[in-house]
Amino acid sequence: MNVRERLKDHKRIVVKIGTATVTYPNGRINLRRLEQLAWVLADLKNQGKEVVLVSSGAMGVGSAALGFAHRPTEIRFKQAAASVGQASLIQIYKNFFNEYNQKVAQILLTKEDIKNDTRKATASRTFETLLHLGVLPIVNNNDAVATVEFEFSDNDTLSAVVAALIRADLLVLLTDIDALYDCDPKKNPDAHRLSIVEEVTPEIMAMAGEKGSAFSVGGMETKLAAAKLCKSIGADMVIASGENPKILHRIIEGEDVGTVFIGRDVE
């Protein structure tokens, strides 16, 4: 069995959607895309998959709602933007998932929830209980109460931490670039897509480019760091375009889209 075929059998899946995918360049929510995402994730649940969604976008949505031209730099304005944006985002998700009879829950995490053994065990138990009950957890960094800059530096890292916490089989990062390339495809039309990466070597890390929109954090470098963490826990990871969330079906069905990072040796 090759690694693409193995994806069909993965049951516990974490899907992370980035800010540039959740919102338009002006920071406003891309409602059509979120509705499509809700349909796809609800359908995966109907197939018997256990799904957790890690969603960026609260900061961007809140910044736009508060009239900020770009992501704020002062922590009190970041906290305000995150508070406003998270409230809007979770309500929209709830409305869309309700259309497909899928219950959702909100989980906001800080590093302390992972570093402290008691809180980590509590978080793990909460996830397990929700998944057992058929609920789809929607996760974000708890930026509104962050006391350091910022608890998880980006949601690529957060999604890998969640994958480790719940012992996921697969992490899918839906982003504004459709795969890992050997050089920046926006600057070089001859850039070559890497279909499968067995190990995140220094050479692979050197392929990381710059971050995306004015409201987003991180870039390919943070995604490769997430791949390293997934490798350490034996989970496969895929980077793919979030432009059309239906690509999740294609990934799970084993199509050659995006880039797969092998979490464990193929049997």
List the helices and strands and how they pair.
Blueprint (H helix, E strand, L loop, with lengths): L2 H4 L5 E6 L1 H4 L8 H16 L3 E6 L2 H8 L9 H24 L5 E6 L1 H5 L1 H16 L3 E6 L13 H11 L4 E6 L4 E2 L11 E2 L1 E2 L4 H4 L14 H14 L2 E6 L5 H6 L6 E3 L6
Helix pairs in contact: 3-5, 4-5, 8-10
Description of the molecule:
With 267 residues, the chain is of the alpha/beta class. The protein contains eleven helices and ten strands. The strands form two sheets. The protein has an eight-stranded mixed β-sheet with strand order 3-4-2-1-5-9-10-8, with helices on both faces. Strands 6-7 form a two-stranded antiparallel ribbon. Helix 3 (31-46) crosses helix 5 (75-98). The N and C termini lie close together (6 Å).
Broad structural category: alpha/beta
- Termini distance? 6 Å
Order of helices and strands: HEHHEHHEHHEHEEEEHHEHE
Tally the helices: what do you get? 11
Oligomer: single chain
Work out the number of β strands. Answer: 10
Biggest sheet statistics: 8 strands, mixed
List the strand order in the largest sheet.
3-4-2-1-5-9-10-8
The best one-word shape is globular
Low-confidence stretches: 211-218
> What is the strand content?
15-25%
Portion in helices: 40-55%
Average predicted local confidence, pLDDT: 89
Radius of gyration: 17 Å
